[in-house]
Design brief:
Number of strands: 12
CATH class of the largest domain: Alpha Beta
Strand content: 5-15%
CATH superfamily of the largest domain: Type I PLP-dependent aspartate aminotransferase-like (Major domain)
CATH topology of the largest domain: Aspartate Aminotransferase, domain 2
Number of domains: 2
Order of helices and strands: EHHEHEHEHEHEHEEHHEEHEHEH
Bound molecules: pyridoxal-5'-phosphate
Number of helices: 12
Helix content: 25-40%
Largest sheet: 7 strands, mixed
Radius of gyration: 21 Å
Oligomer: single chain
């Protein structure tokens, strides 16, 4: 059965839709024609499944400019990758520094460690436009700081944070930097090795166009962490101990090979389109939308004004409406999908002063067209003028 909701989809920062045709085809091919368990058995289907996982690992490593694909560990999503590092690095205690734009996938694991009395953390404030002065990170470092965690781009303000400068100051103090690239992988050039980043968490289902349930982590040479999960890896099966080499050390249990086949096709799609072109297109759409909203009565747009300081999403409100009222009217009366509320990032909303009402967020992928912005602005015009 084909479901056609006839919608304009502008919730790509939550998960991209639609995926490129090649992604659906790759998953269909794996599920129907390959089907084996990767790296487990010696028969053809298992070997082919293992090859698919390897190709996906090589594709992601290529995208991130990482020479050794084994330094890419696959997980279910960015949340799992972030938990792996935060809980791995702070297992025996210590202090972490995070920014006030972090997602709950950073804040909650740290709060859980703090409540258990295992570790502590400090939050460094960004300004109300979502910009961070890296000197503030340096000021927050303590003698026992073991980890700095910073989002590359906020999923609320869209602002890009100065990862290069933070990496430099972290390196001077010998503290590893964990970057949350959930919003930038696929829409921004990433070179964790060149940037001096020790850990980089990404998710597969956003701008890499993979399916939900795929994601991963880059780990720089020399920065090992303990696994969260122990179990079968298809390697060193005679031993009761987890293998000590990557990626097996951190990849217990049967892999999501169907999803990874899709992820590889997504990464190849991004590389073929080119990240620079994706950025240019999304920037154009965001700018058009932002300018249109600011012309509406009561239209407010959040985040930095400079487009090179942000990614392709626009968070806004219409005076006199709650963010959820606007989102539900867009959905019900106009068939437009956006996201309202707090976007799992209450710290970011506290930073920009929208904790009570949240914001409406329209987020683009390279699949969106100028007409989508036109449809949204027309609908917002109706809503704003009807008030
Ligand atoms: C900045 C940021 N970090 C982390 C995540 C978590 O990603 P996932 O749900 O794929 O684990 C998201 C998802 O929205 C995000 O926007």
């Amino acid at each position: 059965m084909e479901l056609d909701f006839g919608t304009v989809y502008l919730d790509n920062a939550a998960t991209t839709y639609p995926k490129p045709e090649a992604v659906y085809a790759a998953m269909d091919r794996f599920a129907r024609e390959v089907g084996g368990s990767p790296g487990r058995s010696g028969h053809k289907r298992s070997l082919e499944a293992g090859r698919e996982v390897l190709l996906a690992r090589e594709a992601v490593a290529g995208l991130l400019g990482v020479a050794d694909p084994c330094r890419i560990v696959f997980t279910r999503n960015a949340t799992e990758s972030l938990n792996l590092v935060i809980k791995g690095v702070l297992a025996s205690g210590g202090h972490a520094v995070i920014t006030s734009l972090e997602h709950n996938s950073v804040w909650r694991p740290l709060e859980a460690l703090a409540r258990a009395g295992t570790a502590s953390y400090s939050i460094v404030d960004c300004d109300p436009a979502g910009m961070l002065d890296p000197a503030r990170i340096e000021e927050a470092l303590l003698a026992d700081t073991r980890l700095i965690v910073c989002t590359h781009a906020s999923n609320v303000t869209g602002s890009l944070l100065p990862i290069g400068e933070i990496a430099e100051l972290a390196a001077r103090r010998g503290i590893p930097l964990l970057v949350d690239a959930a919003q930038t992988a696929g829409r921004y050039e990433l070179d964790p090795g060149g940037m001096g980043v020790q850990y980089l968490a990404f998710t597969g289902h956003k701008e890499l166009f993979g399916p939900q349930g795929t994601g991963g982590l880059y780990i720089a040479p020399g920065w090992e962490i303990d696994p969260l999960l122990h179990g079968g890896t298809g390697s060193r099966s005679e031993s009761s101990l987890q293998p000590d080499f990557l990626p097996d050390r951190l990849e217990s249990g049967t892999m999501n090979a169907v999803g990874l086949a899709g992820l590889r096709a997504g990464v190849e799609f991004v590389l073929e389109k080119s990240i620079a072109e994706i950025r240019r297109h999304e920037e154009e759409l965001s700018q058009l939308l932002s300018e249109g909203i600011l012309r509406l009565p009561g239209g407010v747009v959040y985040g930095p004004r400079e487009w090179k300081e942000r990614i392709g999403l626009v968070s806004f409100n219409l005076h006199g409406f709650t963010s959820s009222e606007v989102a539900s009217r867009l959905d019900e009366a106009y068939g437009i999908c956006v996201r309202s509320g707090l976007h799992c990032a209450p710290l970011a909303h506290r930073t920009i002063g929208t904790l009570e009402n949240g914001v409406v967020r329209a987020s683009f992928s390279c699949m969106n067209r100028t007409e989508d912005v036109g449809r949204l602005l027309e609908a917002l015009g109706d809503i704003a003028h009807a008030s």
